[in-house]
Automatic annotation (TrEMBL):
Domain Arginyl tRNA synthetase N-terminal: 13-102
NCBIfam families per the UniProt record, alphabetical: argS
InterPro entries, per database record: aa-tRNA-synth_I_CS (IPR001412), Arg-tRNA-ligase (IPR001278), Arg-tRNA-synth_N (IPR005148), Arg-tRNA-synth_N_sf (IPR036695), ArgRS_core (IPR035684), DALR_anticod-bd (IPR008909), Rossmann-like_a/b/a_fold (IPR014729), tRNAsynth_Ia_anticodon-bd (IPR009080)
Species for this entry: Nicotiana tabacum (Common tobacco)
Matching Gene3D superfamilies: Arginyl tRNA synthetase N-terminal domain, HUPs, Isoleucyl-tRNA Synthetase, Domain 1
Reaction catalysis annotation: tRNA(Arg) + L-arginine + ATP = L-arginyl-tRNA(Arg) + AMP + diphosphate
Species classification: Eukaryota, Viridiplantae, Streptophyta, Embryophyta, Tracheophyta
GO BP terms: arginyl-tRNA aminoacylation; post-embryonic development; reproductive structure development
Top-level division of the source organism's lineage: Eukaryota
Protein name per UniProt: arginine--tRNA ligase
Family according to the record: Belongs to the class-I aminoacyl-tRNA synthetase family.
Domain DALR anticodon binding: 475-590
Length: 590
């Protein structure tokens, strides 16, 4: 059996190569025709379809062609297909649609190869080498809330899918660690804790409360307000005492953020607003030299066509703002980090801001005019997290919910459910803890990721922790059941991979095999469209296809046991990779 570890490309990509040859042979005079391959909507007609005939006919009709409509065009494409182990048969339907049925032997061989060479050989091939994913990005001295949860979960999954696709990903945490609020925080620190340099994080206490108290003082005490404004100047001027105090406040915040990231299993590299601050004058000079920056009502702005208000890059008081920082970060990522694609994961409320930043970058010639050309920048917006009342998710005291508390509650509810099922006596304390963690945190992530990110979604523990329907709990248990089937067979699955073969005789075996094979193109589509929910839909459908197969095809003790166990293993391997891409830890027993 072949042990060539090369990435084979998706089925769609492999079919596209065959149809590209055919299109060239059948229509050598028509230039720039790209194969249009799609999964068949109705499996009764075929597995895939090629949809080039109609558009080709529109190009060649009236030019003395021998063809008399899209159907003969479709037939010519079929007749010119090179010989292949892949295709069983092709047929035309309607206005020249070409339906393709794959050979089940080829599907089986492809799965056998993946089991030996590894799921990495099914990674999609993307037209990009280095990507910046800018996500999470909380503000120093403020609590991380459910909006940051969405950004963190969505951003991490996009980064994981790109990394699986062999793209170098720079995971960037653009924290809010610079700005006028630090003046009041530093002055309040000096007033409240005179020996602040020796003080511990406990002495400062809850940073959120500390922030609120300093803000109240700022709003009500003119003398304090004046000192706070001077403190900003001292900090930005690099005065050591102020830089030290700023560093201390940032460090306490980072420790809070890290507690969330550890629970979620998320890794980020921090490059906050302060990192880009020294580069702002240079970036603004570049924009100014292009004649893009103009004076307007005392501020310096860039006018963007189609927008009612300009993009302010220097405020009236001469200070910089989000736009100046974001334009500079974009410049840095393009020129210093050499990124092909910059992805910004924030709530939909910031869409217009990023549209204007990207438009300014295009005016400056930093980004190409065509949206599809690289390098490019994309804003990944997401909707709100709602409570059961349909309003923004908060605690009873109208405070935003602490993320650490939210995640811990999901875990403790899972642990309780497992204890009620008697697992505390069956499992070790460590097994119980790890399973509760995997299922609890996984449930929170999946409840978010399964929705189209642009929609609002309702945060409901009972729904997300249900073991029925499209939930992480159901899917994790489905995976554990597959592992249990393999264990109970008593067979050595690693040995079976080497010597066994897969036969897809039953229609439900073939349907499962075909769906497994479509994994690569689903990941590719989810990456290109920046939509993690497509992977969730794939995973849920995979579990449904497996249930149908297992219901109608006896595995253990059947004449087809070896083949069907290998199909079970292939399903478990693909499920585990889906979980990994979604940042969910699989469980192996329930």
């Amino acid at each position: 059996m072949a042990t060539d570890k090369e990435i084979v490309g998706s089925v769609k990509e492999q079919l596209a190569k065959l149809f590209e040859e055919s299109l060239r042979a059948a229509f050598p005079d028509v230039e720039g025709v790209q194969p249009m391959i799609a999964i068949c909507n109705d499996p009764r007609h075929g597995d895939y379809q090629c949809n080039n005939a109609m558009s080709l006919w529109n190009k060649i009709k009236g030019q003395g062609t021998q063809f008399r409509g899209p159907q003969p065009v479709g037939k010519a494409i079929i007749d010119n297909l090179p010989a292949s182990e892949m295709i069983e048969r092709c047929s035309t339907a309607g206005p020249g649609f070409i339906n393709v049925v794959l050979k089940k032997q080829w599907i089986a061989k492809s799965i056998e190869r993946m089991l030996i060479d590894g799921i990495e050989t099914w990674a999609p091939k993307l037209p990009v080498e280095r990507t910046v994913v800018d996500f999470s990005s909380p503000n120093i001295a403020k609590e991380m809330h459910v909006g940051h949860l969405r950004s963190t979960i969505i951003g991490d999954t996009l980064a994981r899918m790109l990394e699986f696709s062999n793209v170098e990903v720079l995971r960037r945490n653009h924290v809010g660690d610079w700005g006028t609020q630090f003046g009041m925080l530093i002055e309040y620190l000096f007033d409240k804790i005179p020996n602040w340099e020796a003080a511990s994080a406990q002495a400062i206490g809850d940073l959120q409360a500390f922030y609120k108290a300093s803000k109240q003082r700022f709003d009500n005490d003119p003398d304090f307000k004046e000192r706070a404004q001077k403190a900003v100047v001292s900090l930005q001027g690099g005065e050591e005492k102020y830089r030290k105090a700023w560093t201390q406040i940032c460090e306490i915040s980072r420790e809070e953020f890290q507690r969330v990231y550890e629970r979620l299993g998320v890794h980020l590299e921090e490059k906050g607003e302060s990192f880009y601050n020294p580069y702002i004058p240079k970036a603004l000079d570049l924009l100014n030299n292009k004649g893009l920056i103009q004076e307007s009502e005392g501020a310096r702005v860039i006018f963007i066509e189609g927008k009612k208000i300009p993009l302010i890059v220097v405020k009236r008081d001469g200070g910089f703002n989000y736009a100046s920082t974001d334009l500079t970060a974009l410049w840095y990522r393009l020129n210093e980090e050499k990124a092909d694609w910059m992805i910004y994961v924030t709530d939909v409320g910031q869409r217009e801001h990023f549209e204007m930043v990207f438009a300014a970058a295009k005016l400056a010639g930093w980004l190409p005019q065509n949206e599809n050309d690289f390098p490019k920048a994309s804003h990944v917006g997401f909707g709100l997290v709602l409570g059961d009342d349909g309003k923004r998710f908060r605690t009873r005291s109208t405070e935003v919910v602490k993320l650490v508390d939210l995640l811990d509650e999901a875990k403790s509810r899972c642990k309780l459910a497992l204890e009620e099922r008697g697992k505390a006596t069956e499992w070790t304390a460590e097994e119980l803890e790890q399973t509760a963690e995997a299922v609890g945190y996984g449930a929170v992530k999946y409840a978010d990721l399964k929705n189209n990110r642009l929609t609002n979604y309702t945060f409901n523990f009972d729904q997300m922790l249900s073991d029925k329907g499209n939930t992480a709990v159901y899917l994790l248990y489905a995976h554990a059941r597959i592992c249990s089937i393999i264990r109970k067979s008593g067979r050595d699955i690693e040995e079976l991979k080497k010597v066994g073969g897969i036969v897809l005789a039953h229609p439900d075996e073939r349907a499962l095999g075909l769906h497994l094979l479509q994994f690569a193109e689903i990941v590719e589509e989810a990456c290109i469209n920046l939509l993690p929910n497509l992977l969730c839909e794939y995973l849920y459908k995979l579990s449904e296809d497996f249930t149908k197969f297992y219901t109608n095809c006896q595995v253990v003790g059947s004449a087809e046991e070896t083949s069907r166990l290998m199909l079970c293993e292939a399903t478990a391997v693909v499920m585990r990779k889906c979980f990994h891409l979604l940042g969910i830890t699989p469980v192996y027993k329930i």
